Amino acid sequence: MGLVVQKYGGSSVADAEGIKRVAKRIVEAKKNGHQVVVVVSAMGDTTDELIDLAEQVSPMPAGREFDMLLTAGERISMALLAMAIKNLGHEAQSFTGSQAGVITDSVHNKARIIDVTPGRIRTALDEGNIAIVAGFQGVSADKKDITTLGRGGSDTTAVALAAALDAEVCEIYTDVDGVFTADPRVVKKARKIDWIAFEDMLELASSGSKVLLHRCVEYARRYNIPIHVRSSFSGLQGTWVSSEPIEQGDKKVEQAIISGVAHDTSEAKITVVGVPDKPGEAASIFRAIANAEINIDMVVQNVSAVTTGLTDISFTLPKTEGRKAIDALEKNKTAIGFESLRYDDQIGKISLVGAGMKTNPGVTASFFEALSDAGVNIELISTSEIRISVVTRADDVPEAVRAVHTAFGLDSDSAEAVVYGGTGR
Where in this chain does the record put each ACT domain (predicted)? Predict the structure, then answer.
């Protein structure tokens, strides 16, 4: 048996009983002959509680100290889990991100992993121990400061360790039984996917699917690390995410035409009104946004008015970056030459994802017909070879997702999908 990396989210280790349940699963893997490395998130809503506490003390906490505070949650989880494993008669050692060799850049609150040097983890494994690693954190290469990896950081930690340790698989344990064709909290008849290619999973993740984060999937694809998404509350097989289809019995699972429907209500829309329709204007707008270190998603430019020669440019971005983006554009208003700005944070994005759509005529028409039949108005449209995304009113998102899911025959004929607890992370 080879080396397995397991990651457990906050809902899986939310309390003492959950930690003991996870410990039994880890010990079972060890008894089956695997070397086991475990990555844990903070217990339950600990990270959110620490963020709230920090905001009560300081409205704008310093990045370094904020990271120092947030990493406490994972350190609590790893120590308690190591204790629970030892209580079952097996040796376990816990390691912080820096002790595990997770080296990052120096950007606090959203650092990126630049290297993993898991010397201490290898030593622990060679000695027959189970290694428990605090997810979501690392240490900066230059100043040796503690850093955090941002949303989904524990998933990324797990995949990075799996790549560095040449693991057979990275198992991501959560509170649903795998990756579904839609969020089972919104679509009760969502169907579990047995296998999905990295490319489709990347599109779902970047479109709002919360079971795996984009950075985690991108890291796994780069190093070709198979991911098995499954529930820590059941023993069922989950969803395999890999470059090649898995085999069930004597045949491989085939790629579906449509992999699923994702949605996201965490974005806002900014419209730059009255932009001169001449070369360089769009570049000036998005250079100002880039200089503010803001990532954008969808971009749409209207046809310019014949009488004025002016156009409008709209783009979407995370709500949390809205104020910063407005300030950056206002600061450059004279240089860019636009008339005004409009901000809208009551939007939602619905995305249809599937590698098969590029060779199947009619997918686009069926998608828009389903939205029309549901009475959903479309504000923006963006497409790729394997994805169609639209922006609508936030209130219309649940009905839109259900309508599209049904229209493409994704509804399950069996029992409703089970959500065991938590928020899907």
Answer: 270-346, 352-425
CATH number at residue 134: 3.40.1160.10
Examine residue 270 and state whether it is found in any structural domain, yes or no.
no
Asked if residue 146 is part of any domain, the answer here is yes
Binding site as annotated, residues for substrate: 47, 74
Annotated binding site: 7-10, 47, 74, 174-175, 185, 210-211
Q: Does residue 377 form part of some domain? A: no
- What is the total count of domains within the chain? 1
Binding-site entries for ATP: 7-10, 174-175, 185, 210-211
Q: 38, 405, 421, 45: which is closest to 190 by C-alpha?
A: 405
Q: Quick: pLDDT tens for 331-348.
A: 999 999 999 999 999 999
Please name the residues in contact with 296: beta carbons below 8 A apart, sequence gap of 6 or more: 286, 289, 315, 316, 317
141 in any annotated domain? yes
Q: What crossing angle do the helices spanning 214-223 and 153-164 adopt, rounded to 10°?
A: 10
pLDDT per position as a tens digit, 190-230: 999 999 999 999 999 999 888 888 889 999 999 999 999 99
In sequence order, what DSSP letters do the residues of 18-45 get, joined into one string?
HHHHHHHHHHHHHHTT-EEEEEE--STT
Q: Which amino acid is at 387?
A: R
